[in-house]
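Re: the request from the purification team.
They wanted to know what the chain is likely to look like in 3D before they choose a buffer screen. I agreed to run a prediction and write the result into the notebook, where they can find it.
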Amino acid sequence: MPTYQFAVVVDDHLMAISHVLRGDEWLSSFPKNILLYRDFNWPAPKFIHLTLTLNKTGGKLSKRQGDVAVEDYRAKGYLAEALLNFCALLGWHPKEDNEILLLDDMIKKFRYQDMGTSPAIFDVDKLDYFNGWHIRHKPLADLAKLCLPYLGKNQAQFGYDYIKKVVSLEQERLKKLSEIGELTEFFFTDEISYQPELLVWKKMTLAQVKNNLQTIFELLEKIPDSEWTDDSLEEAIMDYLKAKQLKTGEPASTRPSLGGYLWPLRASLTGRAASPGPFAVAEVLGKERSLKRINQAIKKL
């Protein structure tokens, strides 16, 4: 562990080193340090020895066993405030239970006297938790800018407003900024690749899926561009499905299910088994691109 020294500055003049914080492996040299200060007739600072930070197996952190440099975590998409929050709690904890801390909170609450005597564990899962929390509470405009390096070269042709809409759909799910590229790749391409089987909901046949997608296509085609919003799309499709469910002239087993329509719709728009909801995705893609993808799915079947 490196040694940290805090200096007291009065009227722009360096007066003295007030505190020295260092790892407890330096305890053996502590008596020698004090003797040196006495021999030079210098006032000794307060020496504070901190417990080491260990990895999850109980060993010392090292480059061989994983990233230990701040730059490594920044490159992976960890926010500065998340790293500060996480590192502040390595060996220290505020008196209250809340572990979500901003820099101002740490400055107000931190007292080295409250630090623990047991080694701290560098738990990346906990760091991911903190990072996800700070991502979710980041203003969208700021988060979108931070995500730009991870979105790939095709982003430039879509514009910043479009990028903000894309990022907003994944903000709740992100743990690291570096995940945004893979999660949103289908927004930044005109061609998505997947097998027709992805469109199938449970035990439906390909013919049933094709028929349902054709129905969805015809419903969405009637919605004007000016009303192409998440809420309008959901209302149009859900009203249709609810009306069909109310018909009593057909057996329950043959009545349309929500999944039988919504799953193929989402799969046709994203090419993914897991993604944001179909109406939100369709709003961001826009009417023309959404209908094109649904039509391509129908042709696959």
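For the purification team: The longest strand covers residues 13-23.
Please add any questions underneath this entry.
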